[in-house]
Amino acid sequence: MAKVNKSETVPAEMRDRFDEIVKITNEFCGKYLNKEYAQLIRFATAALCRKRPSPLVSGEAKTWACGITHAMGMVNFLSDKSQKPHIQSSELCQKFGVSVSSGQAKSKIVRDALKMSQFDPNWCLPSKLESNPLAWMITVNGFIMDARSAPREVQEIAYQKGLIPYIPNDENK
What pLDDT, on the 0 to 100 scale, is given for residue 4? Predict the structure, then answer.
């Protein structure tokens, strides 16, 4: 799985659109989610702004804000009641003032454009990376294994190649 460039850098012509959407998502995250979600949503919004052509050029900002938040929530199981924070998809859309069908449609565009999926290590909340099984799967000599159970030298190589998010039990993670 290719690593995603997590940056808030956007082309000059997309700066106003980025700011407009992020203002809405930051406010939403401040009320209902957390700083981790806000950061990942900003990264996703910036990544969408860098797409050629960007899907964000048309449509209402609040609908895109809802769709991007919904997409991030799908990756991180936001609608699962055992998760904190958690919010149902219909409630999320309602709080953005967007119909469920519009919010989910934009979410699908976002997930397709950014190649997102559930448990996607690239879009996983940092606090959930340790328990995300996909973040740790590597192939060694043709066998899939959990890097957390590999010898330290294998972990170091996997980390250097960008295959795992950090070296387990490393104090500098």
Answer: 61
